[in-house]
User: Which sequence fits this backbone?
């Protein structure tokens, strides 16, 4: 079970850690934590919870899926005073999905705190409903910066009694253009309060915000080796760009994961790939920032309850997706940022489960794989694309496995008589009939993907870095081995316009002689004047 990557701890471990500095955690929170059945702390929880309980400002650097919601949610609830009216804790999130997810997690911790109301507010939802809800003595508000500012301008969100402000996924809020909104919100909170910031990365803009709005903050940072999860098996496939969709289908058929997340770099590709997979018969849905809130909610509900088995999303739209049993992550596009790779594959292999991550690369993107391996201290194994025979065998095994289950569990006497009668009528064997049923169930036959026209090779240089050498078709030029061996058309002209003489020799620069050498050779040749006599000859 995960807690935004949710690792927590046993009750006795919570008690020993949380009862520090004279802070005794509310028994109601402890009861909720115990019922959730967590077994151990994540590093960020172990470091952040005691510091937040002290009431000091905090900077936490940790990746998505490491349990940040519990790290700030538990101590945040501890500060709530039921005797004080109004909002006492404000949490800023970059996306609607993450705001909803964080509010749901905090509600779980506050399950037995009847006097603590948690409210998510975000764009796309009816603001009048939010206004009515805010009048109901809400204690904790979780929202996106834009909608929080809307309520502050309308004076429907009053922060006079605010005690804690949390900025979750602060770097992503900056990437989405919320810096000015964040600064506006923080600058309008007058009373003393605790300011907590969590971010996967620490760009200069984050440091500027912490310098202006935090007082002597404590920095908590998870170490690099925690960026990836050892349970995740990571592979990459070298493919042609035009074959990517077919390769995705091959991977889905071969590994047959129950639930799959596919990441692309663009909204358009989300839609294209979703339509392609639906056309192939897969239960797939797309998620990106241009969708309305109603559609986003429907897509996420469909993925959570298993109606759709494949969710295709951009990195921003996927923030806040917290589904425990994702068996595979496919990077349809190599992420632009290495941090995004960590965020993506962290969606699988959670809570001790096995997970697989597949990355499709085209051409020189192999260098990005090497960068990922170096930064994340991990290893991606090269794999070949499953062949038609591989897929056929995998599909057949799946169908036959289901059939064997029916044989063991169902009464087949009536079906047996029908089959026997049909065998007599059509004069066919039981094996032929079973093979036809199998072929019918497996769908249309596949075609082999054309073999790659190049195979990159790597030579080690003195500095230990890989150097790539290409064959003819990798970048449109000729390799050293192919120079001087170009083909010519019928009129003696090559693809680049170079000519050959009647004897077949190529007199372009490919004949192996340098230009200055040719000039020296020409000096020794006799020169003829173009006389009338020579012209007649």
Assistant:
């Amino acid at each position: 079970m995960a807690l935004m990557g949710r690792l927590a701890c046993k009750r006795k471990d919570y008690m020993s850690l949380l009862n520090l500095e004279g802070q005794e955690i509310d028994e109601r929170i402890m009861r909720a934590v115990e019922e959730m059945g967590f077994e151990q702390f994540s590093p960020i929880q172990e470091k952040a919870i005691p510091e937040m309980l002290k009431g000091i400002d905090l900077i936490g650097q940790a990746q998505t899926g490491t349990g940040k919601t519990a790290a700030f949610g538990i101590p945040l609830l501890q500060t709530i005073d039921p005797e004080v009216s109004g909002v006492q804790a404000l949490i800023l999130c970059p996306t609607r999905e993450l705001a909803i997810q964080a509010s749901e997690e905090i509600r779980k911790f506050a399950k037995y705190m009847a006097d603590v109301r948690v409210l998510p507010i975000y764009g796309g939802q009816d603001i009048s409903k939010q206004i009515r809800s805010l009048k109901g003595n809400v204690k904790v508000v979780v929202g996106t910066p834009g909608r929080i500012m809307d309520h502050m301008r309308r004076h429907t969100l009053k922060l006079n009694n605010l005690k804690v402000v949390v900025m979750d996924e602060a770097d992503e809020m900056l990437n989405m253009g919320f810096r000015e909104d964040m600064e506006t919100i923080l600058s309008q909170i007058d009373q003393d309060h605790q300011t907590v910031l969590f971010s996967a990365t620490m760009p200069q803009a984050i440091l500027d915000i912490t310098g202006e709005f935090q007082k002597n903050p404590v920095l908590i940072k998870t170490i690099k080796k925690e960026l990836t999860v050892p349970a995740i098996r990571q592979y990459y496939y070298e493919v042609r760009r035009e074959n990517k969709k077919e390769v995705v289908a091959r991977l889905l058929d071969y590994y047959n994961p129950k639930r799959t997340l596919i990441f692309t770099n663009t909204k358009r590709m989300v839609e294209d790939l979703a339509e392609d997979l639906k056309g192939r018969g897969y239960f797939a849905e797309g998620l990106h920032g241009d969708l309305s809130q109603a559609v986003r909610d429907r897509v996420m509900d469909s993925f959570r309850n298993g109606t759709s088995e494949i969710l295709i999303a951009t990195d921003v739209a996927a923030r806040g997706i917290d589904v425990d049993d994702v068996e595979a992550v496919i990077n349809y596009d190599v992420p632009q940022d290495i941090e995004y790779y960590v965020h993506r594959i962290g969606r699988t292999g959670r809570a001790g489960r096995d997970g697989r991550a597949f990355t499709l690369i085209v051409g020189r993107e192999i260098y990005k794989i090497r960068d990922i391996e170096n930064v994340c201290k991990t290893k991606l194994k090269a794999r070949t694309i499953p062949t038609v025979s591989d897929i056929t065998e995998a599909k057949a095994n799946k169908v036959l496995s289901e059939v064997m289950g029916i044989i063991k569990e169902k009464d087949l006497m009536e079906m047996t008589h029908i089959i026997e009668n049909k065998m007599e009528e059509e004069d066919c064997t039981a094996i032929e009939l079973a093979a036809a049923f199998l072929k019918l169930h497996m769908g249309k036959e596949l075609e082999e993907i054309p073999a790659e026209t190049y195979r990159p090779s790597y030579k080690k240089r003195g500095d230990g870095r890989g150097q790539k050498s290409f064959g003819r078709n990798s970048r449109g030029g000729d390799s050293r081995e192919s120079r001087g061996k170009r083909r010519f058309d019928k009129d003696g002209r090559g693809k680049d316009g170079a000519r050959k003489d009647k004897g077949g020799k190529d007199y372009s620069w490919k004949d192996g002689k340098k230009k200055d050498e040719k000039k020296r050779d020409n000096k020794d040749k006799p020169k003829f004047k173009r006389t009338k006599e020579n012209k007649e000859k």
Summary: The domain at 11-222 is CATH 3.40.50.300 (Rossmann fold). The chain has four domains: 11-222, 232-386, 389-442, 487-518. The two ends are 95 Å apart (CA to CA). The mean pLDDT is 77.
